[in-house]
Structures are given as structure tokens and as C-alpha cells.
Automatic annotation (TrEMBL):
<dbReference type="Pfam" id="PF00753">
    <property type="entry name" value="Lactamase_B"/>
</dbReference>
<dbReference type="InterPro" id="IPR051682">
    <property type="entry name" value="Mito_Persulfide_Diox"/>
</dbReference>
<dbReference type="GO" id="GO:0006749">
    <property type="term" value="P:glutathione metabolic process"/>
</dbReference>
<dbReference type="InterPro" id="IPR001763">
    <property type="entry name" value="Rhodanese-like_dom"/>
</dbReference>
<dbReference type="GO" id="GO:0050313">
    <property type="term" value="F:sulfur dioxygenase activity"/>
</dbReference>
<keyword id="KW-0479">Metal-binding</keyword>
<dbReference type="Pfam" id="PF00581">
    <property type="entry name" value="Rhodanese"/>
</dbReference>
<dbReference type="InterPro" id="IPR001279">
    <property type="entry name" value="Metallo-B-lactamas"/>
</dbReference>
<dbReference type="GO" id="GO:0046872">
    <property type="term" value="F:metal ion binding"/>
</dbReference>
<dbReference type="InterPro" id="IPR044528">
    <property type="entry name" value="POD-like_MBL-fold"/>
</dbReference>
<protein>
    <submittedName>
        <fullName>Metallo-beta-lactamase</fullName>
    </submittedName>
</protein>
<dbReference type="InterPro" id="IPR036873">
    <property type="entry name" value="Rhodanese-like_dom_sf"/>
</dbReference>
<feature type="domain" description="Rhodanese">
    <location>
        <begin position="366"/>
        <end position="455"/>
    </location>
</feature>
<dbReference type="GO" id="GO:0070813">
    <property type="term" value="P:hydrogen sulfide metabolic process"/>
</dbReference>
<feature type="domain" description="Rhodanese">
    <location>
        <begin position="262"/>
        <end position="352"/>
    </location>
</feature>
<dbReference type="InterPro" id="IPR036866">
    <property type="entry name" value="RibonucZ/Hydroxyglut_hydro"/>
</dbReference>
Length: 456
């Protein structure tokens, strides 16, 4: 039997490949899908089926991309009106060699959510694995707000029923294979566990121990951000995303070509560290460090205007490109070659933002000309505390709330360490704020220097 979990790092997306004999199937494939055909070829298998647990909101589904070279049949729920593939329903079964997959309809995260129960009939008809999509994670359950606030109570009740009437009764020893791991925006607090079982989750996940009324009330009050790109993902995944065939080639651009892009509607994304960005960057660029791209590009970038990357040495841009195509940014077009040094070697203008240490901020804490802006998410601010006198706007919403930030003050932006603070600083500078400082170390550094955070 073949079982392999394929993890899309940073996006915290899990897809799975199962197989028996010469047949294989993939569950929730990602868009850059060669990994699955490579596995199949190495095992002498043919991918015959592709299963989707739901329409997905946080990445582009790779089903059509994978079906093109393999001829595999795509299967998803009958309830969502997909523009491609085959509709399946509760009780349908599929054979992959000696493996048997049985369909469970488990709505709640979305109305059309499915789970797939796996049995190896060469041993027993009993289930030993369940692919739960976004219904059940390690340490958490799926969010229920994406169908709209007016339906959150109904969706929460549906998820409770799906969990307690369909998934949990499968048996304590059944292995749980969720579509996401720790760090995903599809849950509130997913645990960092590679593998788990139904029994372990029943015992250790507090949400599964609540009554239905308690569960629904908790989910109604849950505060989770909805990145704007979610709607784009839902549209693409329902209609069928365009085929890309391979990782796209990026054009190596000269500084003068980047300069022309500044005059047009080009999105310049600087993927260097906050300290490198602060020391010098191209005016109008947005700083999203490499590892932060999957979490924040969907808040800050549009799908129409060309995207150009700025880095120091352009190392492993192939992996960076994958982050973009997994979120549907097919408008990523090029990069500055051979790196940022090419820009300043030609004497091109450089913009800077300031940096402060916690000691610098403490020296100015009572200065009325200082405006401290906390760009962490609200959960971290409420849980961990805040720097005295700070104001809060989540970095993903900053561009929509610029009118709340005074232009006549020195803006000190901070997060928990300094990376999201640099995103915030770049947004402010792009929108005309002249005196912007990023607090290096953020709240961690603030406490590390011996200063206290305010806790309400």
C-alpha cells in the first residue's frame, strides 16, 4: 500500500496520495502537481482518481492540472455546482486496488464539505484512516464563518453534527488526515502534530468536548480574519482554474525596466528581510519576507497588475514562484537581475524607513509626536498584551484603514518580532507617510528588554 502526505510548506496545506497495486489516487492536490506524478512513476503506479474534500478557499486546487497528464477522474461534492469533474454523494465508494474509499458528507466548514473513509479490504473492511478536509484538524476544527455571518450559527451546528454523528463514531484508532496543519488560516489554533487519531482528538481537543450549544456559541464568537483572496480562490476552484502546465518562467529585468514599471501599475514586491528593506529599497515597493508570502500576498496584491520581485541574490526563485501560483497569481512576471545591488550600482533613487530598538521606543514613549501602531492580529494583541499607548490595525487591513493613521506624526510600526511591522511600514510609505519606523524585535524584544506589556 502507498500512503504519502505532501505538505505545501508555509501555506500549511496537506494533500495525500494513496495507492494499491498499480492504481493510485490523490486527495486535495495542489496546483504545482508534478510531485504526485513523480511518486506514481517511482512506484510503477497510475493515478486514476482525484478527490476534493471541498472547494477550498486558501489555495488553487490542482485537480484539473493533475488530470491533464494522467487522465484521472476528478470527484467532488454534488452540492457546490462545480464546473468540471464528477459529482459524488454520501455512501459512494471507490476502489483503488485493494483500498476502498467511502464518501461522507460532512458540511459545516462549507456546505459541500466531504470526508473520505479509507479501508484496506485485503486486511479488513474496518476504517483505519479518514481524510477530513477542513472539518477536523489536529487540535482544532474548521472555521464556520466563510458562508457569511448570517449563516454562521447554522454552519456551526452542521459542523458539530458532522463531527459527532459521522467522523468521531468511526473509531478511536482511526488515523485523521486533515487538509491543513499548524499555521493555516482555515482554523483558529491548529496544533503542530504530524499525525493524530480520532481517539486522541476526542480526549485532547476541548472543542470536541463541548455540548452542541456550547460549540455553536463558541464558533459564533470566534474571531478569524478573512483574506480578500479567499473569494478569488472559491471562484477559480468552482469554475476550474486555468492550466499552467509547468512553473512559469520569470523575466530577468534590468533596473531601467523596473524604473519604467514604477510609472505604471506594476506591483513591486521586495522579499528581503526587514533590516535589508529598511536600509534601502525601491520607492513604492511592498516588503513581504519570503516565508511570509503565502500568508500576506493575498491581502496586499491584486490579480491584474504585473508583479515584479526584488531580492538580494535571487536564490531559489523557483520556490518563491510556487507560492504565487498556488494562490493563483499568474501575473507574476519577472525579477530584478542580478539583485538589488544592480539598482544602487546604477545610482537609482533609494527610499528608506527607520528602525528602532525597544530602548529607542521607551525613550520616546511619552512623546506626543509619536504614534505607535500595532499591526499584529487581534488574537495576539488580546492574548499576549500590548505596548502602552499603542493603537491597533491588523496589517492585512491597514491599506483600507489608512485614514485612521495620522500623517502629521512619526509612526512607529510594530508586530511581535518585526517582519509584519516591515510590511506595515512599506504600506505606509507607499501611501505617502514620510516618517515611518519599524520596531525591530516587536513585542518579543520589548519584553526581552525588560519592559512590560499592558494586558486588559
Amino acid at each position: 500500500m502507498l500512503f504519502e502526505k505532501v505538505v505545501s510548506e508555509l501555506l500549511a496545506h496537506n494533500s495525500y496520495m494513496i495507492g494499491s497495486g498499480r492504481e493510485a489516487a490523490v486527495i486535495d492536490p495542489r496546483r504545482d502537481c508534478r510531485v504526485y506524478t513523480n511518486i506514481a512513476e517511482s512506484r510503477g503506479m497510475e493515478i486514476t482518481h482525484i478527490f476534493e474534500t471541498h472547494r477550498n478557499e486558501d489555495y488553487v486546487i490542482g485537480s484539473r492540472e493533475l488530470a491533464r497528464p494522467t487522465g484521472a477522474l476528478i470527484h467532488h461534492s454534488r452540492k457546490a455546482g462545480f464546473g468540471y469533474g464528477n459529482a459524488i454523494a454520501e455512501g459512494d465508494t471507490f476502489s483503488i486496488g485493494t483500498l476502498m474509499l467511502r464518501v461522507l458528507e460532512t458540511p459545516g466548514h462549507t456546505p459541500e464539505s466531504l470526508s473520505f473513509v479509507l479501508a484496506d479490504t485485503s486486511v479488513s473492511d474496518d476504517p483505519f484512516m479518514v481524510f477530513t478536509g477542513d472539518a477536523l484538524f489536529a487540535g482544532d476544527v474548521g472555521r464556520t464563518d466563510l458562508a457569511g455571518e448570517e449563516l454562521r450559527e447554522e454552519m456551526s451546528g452542521m459542523l458539530y453534527d458532522s463531527l459527532h454523528e459521522k467522523i468521531l463514531p468511526l473509531g478511536d484508532d482511526v488515523i485523521v488526515c486533515p487538509a491543513h496543519g499548524a499555521g493555516s488560516v482555515c482554523g483558529g489554533d491548529i496544533s503542530d502534530r504530524e499525525y493524530t487519531t480520532i481517539g486522541y482528538e476526542k480526549e485532547h481537543t476541548p472543542l470536541l468536548q463541548k455540548t452542541k450549544a456550547e460549540f455553536v456559541e463558541y464558533k459564533k464568537q470566534e474571531q478569524l480574519y478573512v483574506p480578500p483572496y479567499f473569494r478569488r480562490m472559491e471562484e477559480l476552484n468552482l469554475q476550474g482554474p486555468p492550466l499552467i502546465y509547468n512553473i512559469p518562467h520569470l523575466a530577468a529585468l534590468k533596473p531601467q525596466e523596473i524604473g519604467e514599471g514604477q510609472k505604471q501599475a506594476t506591483q513591486i514586491v521586495d522579499i528581503r528581510s526587514p533590516t535589508s528593506f529598511a536600509g534601502g529599497h525601491i520607492a513604492g515597493s511592498i516588503n513581504i519576507w519570503r516565508e511570509g508570502l503565502p500568508a500576506f500576498m493575498g491581502y496586499l496584491l491584486n490579480y491584474d497588475d504585473p508583479i515584479i520581485l526584488i531580492d538580494d541574490f535571487n536564490l531559489d526563485l523557483d520556490q518563491v514562484t510556487r507560492h504565487f501560483i498556488r494562490l493563483g497569481y499568474d501575473n507574476l512576471t519577472g525579477y530584478l537581475a542580478p539583485g538589488f545591488a544592480a539598482w544602487f550600482r546604477q545610482g537609482k533613487p533609494i527610499e528608506r524607513n527607520g528602525t528602532w530598538s525597544p530602548y529607542d521606543l521607551n525613550d520616546h514613549l511619552d512623546d506626543p509626536s509619536i504614534y505607535i501602531l500595532d499591526v499584529r492580529d487581534v488574537t495576539h494583541r488580546e492574548r499576549d498584551g500590548s505596548i502602552p499607548g499603542s493603537h491597533h490595525i491588523y496589517v492585512g487591513h491597514l491599506e483600507d484603514k489608512l485614514d485612521e493613521v495620522p500623517k502629521d506624526k512619526r509612526i512607529v510600526v510594530h508586530c511581535d518580532v518585526g517582519y509584519k511591522g516591515s510590511i506595515g511600514a512599506s504600506i505606509l510609505q507607499k501611501n505617502g507617510f514620510k516618517d515611518v519606523i519599524n520596531l525591530l524585535g516587536g513585542t518579543y524584544g520589548w519584553e526581552g528588554a525588560g519592559y512590560s506589556l499592558t494586558r486588559d
